[in-house]
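Lab meeting minutes (informal)
Scribe: AK
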Amino acid sequence: MVFAPDAAPSKRPAFLDWYEEQTEWNEDHDYDDPRVATPALQAFHADLTAEFPPAPADVPDPASGTDYTIGRTLLYMSFLDWDRIDAAWEAVHRLAAKHELGFFDVSSDLAEVWLPDRKGGLRVAHSD
């Protein structure tokens, strides 16, 4: 998941509470429209979908593609092609740095939260 860094708490316990609240998906919009997101998230989405296209909506259980859930201050991705998961992680990390977004590695054992380092990269802010 990537997120607008200024929208999320910086300390781990508060961040995890924020994450839980955000992933209840209670915003008053559809979660498949990038226009609801911040400009940086919109740009990230455009770049990432060029490399990892959305999963086909008309296929009940696609084996490839990416599911995107788009909120105002976060973008949650589920990569369905496990053969490309390392490439997906690298792309998300690279593009989050490019667009100065936070990156929460939800599926990592350590659940690292990365924040922009203001030098063009990301730094680990906290983890389990």
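Next up, CB showed the second protein from the same session:
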Amino acid sequence: MDVKGKKVSVIGGGKSGLAAAELLRREGAKVLLSELGAFGEEDAERLREMQISFEQKGHSEAVYDADFCVISPGIPPYAAVVTTMQARGIPLFSEIEIASRFCKARIVGITGTDGKTTTSTLVHRICAEDGLRRGYRAYSVGNIGVPFSSRVLDMESGDIAVVELSSYQLERSPTFRPDVAVITNITPDHLDRYEGDLGRYAAAKFMIYANQGAEDTLIYNEDDVLLREHFLDGADRFPFRIIPFGMEPAAGGVPDPRIVLLDGDTLVVRTLNGDAPVVMTSDFLKNSFRGRHNVSNVLAAVAVANALGIDNDVVRLVLREFRGVEHRQEFVMTINGADWVNDSKATNINAMRQALEALPGTAVLIAGGRDKGNDYASIAGLVRKKISLLIALGESQGKIVSDFQGVVPVKAAASLEDAVLFASDAARPGQTVLFSPGCASFDMFKNFEDRGMQFKQCVRQLQPW
């Protein structure tokens, strides 16, 4: 992508906006970085050093004097600056799109409602281990917290970029083409952004394969009903190779399309010469990494390794050492016989459901935050079975209290600190205290990482009996 001398506006001064601005400036573009809020002094000084023009506390008319614009993923499509750009015919791109145009490495793109961070982390570690043996480097970038733009110029041909992708990042990525694309699942999420339309949300996810061709691979979860129906007879409709994975057997009389699957307790890859065993579930389901959803995540990672030609012994080594992802069903500590688990990354109902299903017994549940159109009735039966007390907090507190009254005992908390204290009083030896909000974090916290860190800090301040 030749951007030398081009005028580019970057809207949004978060991590991805800053990284995109730096990348474009290094490549010779004239960049204006525009932010509604304010920059910290460290970021402002960095921008001055890079000779990047910037403005804060609002978008001026200057942002429209641009050959194209890079929009940060958190800016909704109905924002005034976006609609004005469109009305003036200024092309709009995501940071992912811009970075991909400079990328020399092979790209593994991973999206889905849930499981994409765990799957991305696993795939990156598998690739990194394989790279040590075969002489290439693996990078973990994207929605996982490291902007693609911040590392792309370090990447060489033969390296692998494992790119975690949200629907927001895929929305304005018209030429993005991963060598291997993964869709872990699609369940209702972000419906506030997509006007309650699951189809629109799914369409954004499907952008991951829009530009793939015959040399590329698409991996999807055959257990997910929406994906199963979408890719039905896919070999006849799509130009790329398709690798379905799944745990559930095909319905009676229907040919089983799965290539990577669970056979009893063994993950296998189906080949022309029969099923090749990869690893036993007992080798990796332990501690903070448990539950059927994590078997599904591992199946996805095995499918990627298969697509990349990585030996099964590398996969086994990584899986046997893997201990899960921070803020995703993360074991914090045991206090007075009760285990405390940080699942702050559960920002939707399906993620909360997965955490509840993985519980070894009953639990005290702390939930709530900024609601994204949640249907709490869909998990009422599971909550009744698993939860002895539900503690509600955040903007969705009233809705949670209302929806679960009569299902389980519910208590409202004014703060996370209060919620932790209430849970400590209620939890009994052998139980779990599960912090699985099922909501976005932006009502009370910077992001889900900040929320999870504050939860862990509150737990560590508790006094044992």
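CB comment: The CA atoms of residues 73 and 168 lie 5 Å apart.
No objections, moving on.
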